[in-house]
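Example (one chain per record):
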Amino acid sequence: MEAVVVAVIVALIFAVLVALGVIATVRTVRAVKRGVDRTVHQARRTVEDTRLKARQFAQPGAAGEVAQLRLSLRTSMRATQDALHTAAPEDPSLSEALALFQRLSAHGHELDDELKRLETEPDKARIAARLPELRERTARVKDSADSLRFAAQDRARRFAEDDLETLSGQIRMEAGALRHWSDEGMDEGIGEAAGAAAGGRTAAPGAGAPAGEQPEPRAITGRDRDAWRSPGYSWQKAGRTESAG
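Predicted structure:
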């Protein structure tokens, strides 16, 4: 009976380990697939932008302007998307801005598709006739995207400035408190030394103190700054140890 129970327990443990291995494998495969998809998407985007830049300068006139409109639209929308997605996790107030950008992205994709179709349009007159309207729509979408991006950047910069100002005030208060404590200790030490010199005698530190009592701690001076330095501080380079000989 005990052998059967042990076998069942071993079988359950083995099944759990197999299940965990399958789950880990599936997650790894999905993560790799997402990484590959992201890399492929970035490569395609880079190739497309490079093609548009080349077309912008290689084909003057209406065809070159269509490429220039697509490039400026894609650059503005991508920059705004990156700015909002980077700042949103730290600032929940940008959720509404993200929702507005998603709606704006739908218009941007539609406009980008129209411009892309015009790149293969053989009728140059038709392209020239459509350019004023497409130029206006591109400017409107681009200005809206830029407005969202600039507002998010200004908001983040303002928060950083406010936090720095608060931190600076706290540091000034702490620095003042430290200096006040040090000055008081130095004044007391100077007064005690003057009293000892006037009486024509000197005493060793702690001399004359009743048994069981310790002298008051002295103020921290410049000699003690090394003892208060925190080792391994991230802004401080680690000292290089020189080998003997």
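Caption: The radius of gyration is 36 Å.
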